[in-house]
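Hey, can you fold this one?
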Amino acid sequence: MSSNLDRGMLEAVFAPEELITAPESILGPVSDADAREVLGTLGIPVWENPWFDLDDGIGERLEPVEDGWIALGMIPYDDIALDPKSGEVHCIPQDGETYLLNSDLRSFVHFQYLLKLESPNYDWESHRKVELEAVRERIRDTMNSIDPAALENPESRWFDVLTYLVDPEHHFE
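Sure. Predicted structure:
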């Protein structure tokens, strides 16, 4: 299943100032059509959360990193980058091998949307562990239906995020 995510869905869960778009004038290095649309119209959610530190300056500049990729931000303690030619999103660990985080930028944003949409359901103080486990499974299943390749790597940071939903004491290593 591909992502059917649109701006209206994002605006239903994110504040307008949390959705960062880039003007056409800086999208030159991005040749993947869908990644251009995501950056230019859909927007990258930059929101307060325990996992991602996404670059809120992406609407003003596209910072190149290795191989001409564009820096999107971090997930503890690794960099996240967009391949502007393929639209793939990669995780660049500090001490490991680079791997595919999402097959395309739209799926990466869709995963952010899912986490924000479900956030009332993983409040550790008001939900029992069994309820939190059900939320985690629901999110994982939805992620898998959107972008199965994102969950093929057992070392993917997505599994740390999913673990954190149930165990807020979980530390990214």
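The beta strands are 19-20, 44-45, 53-54, 70-75, 78-82, 89-92, 99-102. Let me know if you want another pass with a different chain boundary.
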